[in-house]
Write a structure and sequence with these properties.
With 212 residues, the protein is an alpha+beta fold. The chain has 3 domains: 1-28; 29-96, no CATH class; 100-210, Tetrahydropterin Synthase, Chain A (2-Layer Sandwich). Helix content is 39%, strand content 28%. The longest helix is centred in the N-terminal third of the chain and has 24 residues, at 6-29. Its main location: membrane. GO terms for molecular function: protease binding. Residues 77-210 form the Band domain.
């Protein structure tokens, strides 16, 4: 029976070890977002979409200042695929694209100066397009997630403000009789502000009109 040379065994072992190291290295460097996430890569050599104009420092001439342009973040956005991320030199973060909800509860006065309360719920999410993801990443990527996070706070502020304004032009009877119209008008009024945050509204429901 022919013996396998010790040199061949060593070479085969070294090749196997090298392959294992390559697999481990590949898994460590290759980042893949979940189906309901966007992978945001920043750092050295990243070429992608710059932050929107609303996030830049604008000078008196209406153009971004040199300092603002230098400090503007540039993101590489990955959805539905993967990318290599260099340790230390680059940073990979994940931005949720899942739908979320915010409970709305606002008190105001109607057209006849009668106090009235409105309860509702807004279902929203980060938009799927690159500009929406960029806007949301610029503002929320490092923010605290969840119901107590900055995103929920801003969404509530937007809808509460528009609800108070619309309530002030209607009577309690109008509000009770036209909940769907109130929801649609509030949703339409919030579109531009939500777009600046990179958010879209899936639905807005008025659950209750309170007449103290």
């Amino acid at each position: 029976m022919t013996e396998i040379p010790i040199t061949l065994i060593i070479v085969a072992g070294a090749v196997l070890l090298a392959l294992l190291l390559l697999i481990v290295l590949f898994k460590a460097l290759w980042k893949v977002p979940a189906a309901d996430e966007a992978l945001i890569i920043t750092g050295l050599g990243v070429k992608g979409r710059p932050a929107g104009r609303e996030h830049l420092e604008i000078g008196p001439d209406g153009q971004p200042t040199a300092a603002g342009a230098a400090n503007a973040k540039t993101f590489k956005i990955i959805t539905g695929g993967g990318a290599f991320v260099l340790p230390i030199l680059q940073k990979a973060q994940y931005l949720s694209l899942r739908a979320d909800s915010a409970e709305l509860e606002v008190t105001g006065v109607d057209k006849q100066k009668i106090p009235v309360g409105v309860k509702g719920v807004a279902v929203f999410k980060v938009g799927d397009d690159d500009q929406s993801i960029t806007n949301a990443a610029t503002r929320f990527l490092d923010a605290t997630p969840g119901q107590n996070g900055q995103m929920h706070h801003l969404v509530k502020e937007i809808f509460h403000g528009h609800l108070r304004s619309i309530i002030g032009g209607l009577t309690v009877e109008d509000l009770i009789a036209n909940r769907n119209e109130l929801a649609q008008e509030t949703r339409d009024a919030s579109v531009q502000e939500m777009q600046k945050l990179g958010l879209v509204v899936d639905s807005l429901q008025i659950q209750d009109i309170l007449d103290p």
